[in-house]
Amino acid sequence: MRITLAAATFTITCLLPACKQVPQIIPRLQLSPASLGQPLSLQQQIEVTGTNQHHSLNAVLEVDTQHLTIVGMALGQRVLTLRFDGQQLQEQRHPLLPAQVQGSEILNDLQLALWPADAIRPHLPSGWHLDDSTSQRVLYQDNQRITEINYTAQPAWLGLIEIRNLRYEYRLTIRSAPMDN
C-alpha cells in the first residue's frame, strides 16, 4: 500500500509546476482568508491532467474570516493539510508526499480561481494583469496568457472550475459541493 500511495501521489504532483524544474515566476498571492468575502465549506474532487497523464484526488476546503484549511486525500489517506491565516502557511505532509509538492502553489491556484478579482489585482506585480468575467478569468504577464480559468456557474464554487496553466502545461478540473454543517 505504501508503494501504491507513493506512486499515486508522485504522479499526481509531478504534473504540478514544481516538477517542471522551471523557476517559479507566477506571482505569489497569499491573500487573507477574509478577502474572499464569505465563509466556504466545500468537498472537492480535483482532476489533474498533464501530458499523457490524468489523476484525481479528493479535498476538503474550509475558509472563514481568520483561516483557510485544505485537506487533501489520495487512496483514502490524508496526504496534505494546509492551514493559512493570511500571514503564515503551515503544512502537514504525509511522509511519502514528494518534496516537490508545494503548499504555496496549491494556495496560489485556489486563490487565483476563487478570490474576487478586485482582491487579487493589487497583489500582482508590474507587467501582470487579470481579466475577469462571469465565465472566465485570464492571468497575463506582458499580454501573454499564463493561466486561464473557466467557470460553469456563479458563484464559481458551485460549478465546475477548469484551471489551465499554460506556462507549466497542466490542467486542474475542480468539482465542488457544499458541505452540510
Descriptive terms for the model:
181 residues, alpha+beta, 10-stranded antiparallel β-sheet
Description:
This protein is an alpha+beta fold. It is 15% helix and 42% strand. Strands 5-4-3-2-1-10-9-8-7-6 form a ten-stranded antiparallel β-sheet. The longest helix has 12 residues.
In short:
The chain is of the alpha+beta class and 181 residues long.
Overall mean pLDDT stands at 85
User: Going across the major beta sheet, what is the strand order?
Assistant: 5-4-3-2-1-10-9-8-7-6
The structural class is alpha+beta
How do the helices and strands follow one another from N- to C-terminus? HEEEEEHHEEEEE
Q: What fraction of residues sit in β-strands?
A: 35-45%
Q: What overall geometry do the principal axes of the alpha carbons give?
A: globular
Topology (elements, then pairings):
Layout: H1 2-13, E1 40-50, E2 53-63, E3 68-74, E4 77-84, E5 89-93, H2 103-114, H3 117-120, E6 128-132, E7 136-141, E8 144-151, E9 160-165, E10 170-178
Antiparallel strand pairs: 1-2, 1-10, 2-3, 3-4, 4-5, 6-7, 7-8, 8-9, 9-10
